[in-house]
Amino acid sequence: MLGWEFPPFISGGLGTACYGLTKALSQAGTEVTFVLPRAVSSEYTTHVRLASPTTISTRLSGRDVLGEEAFSNVTFRTIPSSLRPYVSPGSSQGSLQHKDCEKGTCPVCAGVGGLSEVDVASLLGDVGHGPHYGEDLYQQVQRYARLAAAIARDEEFDVIHAHDWMTYPAGMAVAAISGKPLVVHVHSTEFDRSGEHVNQLVYDIERQGMHNAALVITVSYLTKSIVMSRYAVPEHKIRVVYNAIERNGHLQPNPAESSIRKNEKIVLFLGRITMQKGPEYFLAAAKKVLEVMDNVKFVMAGSGDMIRHTIEMAANMGIGHKVLFTGFLRGGDVDRVFKMADLFVMPSVSEPFGLVPLEALRNDVPVLISKQSGVAEVLTHALKVDFWDVNEMANKIVAVLRHPPLQATLREHGNFEVRKLSWGDAASGCIETYESAVRTALAV
Length: 444
Description:
It contains 16 helices and 13 strands. Helix 14 (about 390-400) packs across helix 15 (about 405-420). With about 450 residues, the chain is α/β, with parallel strands linked by helices. The protein is about 40% helix and about 15% strand. It has helices at about 15-25, 55, 115-125, 135-150, 170-180, 190-195, 200-210, 220-230, 255-260, 280-290, 305-315, 330-340, 355-360, 390-400, 405-420, 425-444; strands at about 30-40, 50, 75-80, 160-165, 180-185, 215-220, 240, 265-270, 295-300, 325, 345, 365-370, 385. The longest helix has 21 residues, at about 425-444. It has a 6-stranded parallel β-sheet with strand order 10-9-8-11-12-13, with helices on both faces. A 4-stranded parallel β-sheet has the order 4-5-6-7, with helices on both faces. The protein has a 3-stranded mixed β-sheet with strand order 1-3-2. The chain is elongated. Strand 11 (about 345), helix 13 and strand 12 form a beta-alpha-beta unit.
């Protein structure tokens, strides 16, 4: 399994998903070698192995403590890399230009796992360059691919499972040297992250990964539709496996520590403050709510390339004193902010799934989510609205804040509903996909 996030090294939902999925796979008896990019001391020139999962558990800040039994069938391998998923367009790192192939020094086509530059170039296709990702990231993606392929030479495995585009080159390289089937897991696409202004290099890697895979897993039917229409992947190659939420062992914060006495209602936005997450629609709805209700504060928890623009937008709208920006939250701080919230709002423009609403419901917070999200497919007891319809978004926020019975109903039924979403079911879906991929490979 190839992934670029795992607790405590996370910047979004992928790390949480990898945690829940590998734990469930281990408990189902599936042996997993998880290859994780992580910055390590310069004295290490090859991969290193984490001695046991307990070396991670000590830094989970009390959230769902990781034990050896839960991960008894998972071997964690770390390699010297520092993948950073998103770099602002204005970053001094600039953009990678695919221009040094003739010199043999192109970082995009650097040798991967013993493959020649020509082999790697053919795997990646005719890649270009774009403004949304830094040069260092592309170099680290290829370094990760090269070292993951080296690890694979010494491992016994039946199938390769690659999460999102940054691991697709590694997955293709491992498949090329091993002959084992590749399954790619699409948690997000470049169209979700960038809208119509996609980074061509990233898109090409995504497309190559999907087409080189034996099967493709998507986290929702919404994402399946994008994969079919935008990447021309045939429907028979796609399996939908929903994400879930971890419940066993979840530590609820002490009410005495997390509760606050307040006269104001709290509406929460929690996630990356980027175009994909729709922060400007959240603020537009907030302004409309404040026109009819004054006792409301809007909390925006997260960081991203739109943070400065969002702060300036709130100030220019005259609601800056009613919007609180917390920055990126982790661990117990996430649970504490949920305990303060009266409503969680996810106005995402395009959300392949969306784990945060499940976290909110687990913490007894009612949710308002955009219809343009995969999680809307699995939640019945949640308010839903088109991300662009800020009038309706504001109306529903006001309804929840003004009518405690509605809030209580959403909270009660939503919490019950989220309990039915199991990582065990997700693991079963992945195992069925693995078995199908292996059968297909043997038939060929």
